[in-house]
Structures are given as structure tokens and as C-alpha cells.
Amino acid sequence: MMKRSILTGQRLVAVFLLGCVLFNYPVIALFNKTGELFDIPLLYLFLFGAWALLIGLMAWVIEHRQE
């Protein structure tokens, strides 16, 4: 049981670091263009998509059971 909690903690730290990279200036600047997709600016799509991805990854890491 203790090994699982350590592994979960390490995975959550990895998700946090991925979030730090995704929401850092150089990556956000890539999507700060005038283009649109489905009438939504690319920057907004990226921000909300990355946010949803991080939430999904955190939920998967917390709920994933090793059997």
C-alpha cells in the first residue's frame, strides 16, 4: 500500500511539471495567433484544452488501481 502512494505522488508531481511546461510563456506564445478553430481563438482552445488534459491526467493517476 505504501508503495502505491509513493508512485501516485511521483506521478502527480510529473503532471504538475507538465502543467508548468504547458502554461509557460514560450508554449503559450506558440498559440497566441490570430487563427481560429470552430470560431474559437487558438489561445483559448489551447488553454482550456491543456487545463482539461491536466485535470483528466490527475483523475486518472488518482483513480488508477494497480492489480
Structural features, described:
The chain contains three helices and two strands; from the N terminus they run ααββα. It has helices at 2-22, 25-31, 42-63; strands at 36-37, 40-41. Strands 1-2 form a two-stranded antiparallel sheet.
Helicity, as a percent range: over 70%
Discrete helix count? 3
Quickly count the domains: 1
Strand order of the largest sheet: 1-2
User: Number of DSSP strands?
Assistant: 2
- Please indicate the percent range of residues in DSSP E strands (runs of 2 or more): 5-15%
- Provide the gyration radius in Å: 15 Å
H/E series: HHEEH
Oligomer: single chain
**Overall geometric form:** elongated
How would a crystallographer describe the biggest sheet?
2 strands, antiparallel
What is the structural class?
Answer: mainly alpha
- Tell me the distance between the termini: 12 Å
Ranges where pLDDT stays below 50 over 5 or more residues in a row are none
Mean pLDDT across every amino acid position = 90
Quick take:
The protein is mostly helical. It contains three helices and two strands.
Topology (elements, then pairings):
Layout: H1 2-22, H2 25-31, E1 36-37, E2 40-41, H3 42-63
Helix pairs in contact: 1-3
Defining key terms:
mainly alpha, two-stranded antiparallel sheet, elongated
